[in-house]
Amino acid sequence: MFSLETDITKMPRNWRLKDVPVPSPSDVVSEVFASDVLTLEELRQRLSKPVWKSLAATIDRGAVVDPSIAETVALAMKTWAMEKGATHYTHWFQPLTGSTAEKHESFVTPTADGSAISQFTGRELIQGEPDASSFPSGGLRATFEARGYTAWDPTSPAFIMRHGNGATLCIPTAFASWTGEALDHKTPLLRSMVCLNEAASNALKLFGFEDFSRVESTCGVEQEYFLVDEQFFLRRTDLALTGRTLFGAKPPRGQELEDHYFGSIPDRVLTYMTDCEHQLYALGIPVKTRHNEVAPGQYEIAPIFEQSNIAADHQQLVMQILRNTARRYGLVCLMHEKPFAGINGSGKHLNWSMATDTGHNLLEPGETPHENMQFLFFCAAMIKAVDRHQDLLRACVASASNDHRLGANEAPPAIMSIFLGEQLTDIFERIVSGKGGSAKKSGLLGLGTPVLPHLPRHAGDRNRTSPFAFTGNKFEFRAVGSSQSVSFGITVLNTIAAESIRELASIIESKMKKKQSFEAALVEVLKEAWTKHARIVFNGDGYSTKWHKEAEKRGLLNLRTAVDAIDQLVGAKNVALFSSAGVLSERELEARQEVLFDQYFKTINIEAETTEWMGRTQLLPAALEYLGDLASTNIEDSRALDRTIGQVAAAADTLSDALEELSVQNQELGGDSVHEKSHHMRDNVLPAMTHVRAAADALERLIPSKLWPIPGYREMLFVK
Ligand code: ADP
Ligand code: MG
């Protein structure tokens, strides 16, 4: 018979803070900030002038590190790190899995005579050899052909990561095969920075803008995440193995009330956030905002933007610190794109722009007609770039988990489009029609537009449905998934921007060679770019079915699933783009496709097996136990009993049938190639999982909660 005891392991920890050590509030941010970073200034002070000069040249111009200074730099680094309490060092890199990897080496090596020597040589600084044969390489580095190696990236500063009782010096590195092919996300990002610098610098010079030595892309990433109580997490095999709930009936209350958004943050969560922020400050990461997100249990953190390579490294650290710190508070941080069905998922807004090293933002509309022409030029280049490379933007955010957002019942859609805002759209339209603005005073030469009206900064939530929105002085790419690395996205943006900028600039140049004035040439180029690419601009609701139809009419791509998008990655257009830019060779691009397919199919394969496992060993048994209980009562003539038995039996049958169906699909892989396997997962396995889930969720509504073996949505999302 039923036991009346409630299962205390299903209860959350107390959401009040009790036994958690709270970081000392006296820490002054200005003192803490970057205290665990080997900043350039710190390094300069520790190096002789000639060594510093050589290193600075490497950092500024992306030159190759001179091996003869490596020894001295390594010693300075080690000394600094040991003063900070570090006992180990690691080359910290971004393998194609999307996370970061590290293999710690001790600074101190025990010797045979029982003493110890402390060592960290120049060679160990510049180059490491992690036994990398098990990192995904998309076939670039067949395992028998030995390891990849890591190479120091001196443009991103080294830092200290602390744990309970120690600290490690982390040296940001690139990761490549012995044949020099990129096995990571950092290498192509660095290459794309070079390519963007070249294109944008040349274009700026056409405008007579000379006050700079370098153009870089800038990036600020808003990160969404969920927090659930650890006690719930521990009871959910699906969360532990796949990062998302594979089961769970929609609770009577979801996010309808919208009362969580920007609401006050629970104490335990706020304390956790403060702790994370302190650690991030120490790492020199300028986190600035925190708030509740739309869904219950969902939060967001965002730093101030930085140069893209550093921002990408910092973004990885933000994820790592958020994940690691949560456990201290009895919480688990879920980065998955869709941890809870029927509730908003988590994304990452990649804010992106281009700026000179002198601080001039190329996407900032200016005060003078001249500045505005420059702004319109770079803006037009982005419109062209996004229209031409819709497939790449979709592919660089493609993953099994992000499919639950893109193209599913959630914004942003899988169709790439640009939100420009009415005003900017209007300006482009007026340029094309040759009609000036109403206030044609100072007249922007042939543009027929005077000084641009003041464009509103960040339209915020107004255009949340657009995957790529202009927000006043930057673009916001919102299709990136919450768990993804932003590096590939930045690489794509840099590369496609560079290509369009180069093309538009060279058209202007050739027109000028034919004696056209710069202004006249510019106007023609803007007109042409807009006429050809305006179809990508859409200021309305990207979520509406009306838009889906309209987009189809406009000939825009709608790559609904990751599989469709990954398929496009190695198309001739993309191979040409990346190889001519020197960002990714054809082989490197193919390797990325291979890895993306591989991860796609493995993710779903693991989810499907977890679904079957939990269904068979936890959920169906609960249904049968209840049926057994009901059948063994000696109540007679009860409509309630008969009806319940009928309902539960029918629901259990449905679950059992669905499990059989899933089991058959799980025994198949669909073929030998990762491509075939991915198709099988998408076309056969996912639907079978959906059937199992529907049946199980129906049972969850029928079975007494004390018999239901896993915590439900109503507990995980609302009990706090
Ligand atoms: P919110 O979205 O909260 O209104 P903002 O629009 O100011 O805030 O910024 C969102 C993110 O965009 C922040 O990380 C911010 O630093 C970043 N950002 C602002 N300007 C730029 C820029 N020029 N380049 C890249 N990122 C930027
Ligand atoms: Mg945003």
Helix content: 40-55%
Estimated share of beta-strand residues: 5-15%
* Secondary-structure content class: alpha+beta
For the terminal residues, how far apart are their CA atoms? 31 Å
Number of strands: 17
By DSSP (H or I, 4+ residues per run), the number of helices equals 22
Largest sheet: 9 strands, mixed
Q: Extract low-pLDDT stretches.
A: 1-6, 437-446
Q: Averaged pLDDT, please?
A: 88
Please tell me how large the radius of gyration is: 28 Å
What does this structure look like?
With 720 residues, the chain is an alpha+beta fold. Helix content is 45%, strand content 13%. It contains 22 helices and 17 strands. A hairpin with a 5-residue loop joins β10 and β11 (298-303). α13 packs across α15 (518-533) and α19 (586-631) packs antiparallel against α20. The longest helix is centred in the C-terminal third of the chain and has 46 residues, at 586-631. 48% of the residues are buried. The site of adenosine-5'-diphosphate (ADP) has 18 residues, from β9, β11 and β14.
Layout of helices and strands, plus pairs?
Layout: H1 29-32, H2 40-46, H3 49-61, H4 67-83, E1 88-92, E2 104-106, E3 108-110, E4 116-118, H5 122-126, E5 127-128, E6 148-152, E7 159-163, E8 166-177, H6 186-206, E9 215-229, H7 230-234, H8 237-242, H9 267-282, E10 287-292, E11 298-303, E12 306-307, H10 308-326, E13 331-334, E14 347-356, H11 369-388, H12 390-395, E15 418-419, H13 422-433, E16 468-470, E17 475-481, H14 487-513, H15 518-533, H16 545-553, H17 562-568, H18 572-581, H19 586-631, H20 639-666, H21 674-700, H22 713-718
Parallel strand pairs: 1-8, 15-16
Antiparallel strand pairs: 1-2, 3-4, 5-6, 6-8, 7-8, 9-11, 9-12, 9-13, 9-14, 10-11, 14-17, 16-17
Helix pairs in contact: 6-14, 9-10, 11-14, 11-15, 13-15, 14-15, 17-19, 19-20, 19-21, 20-21
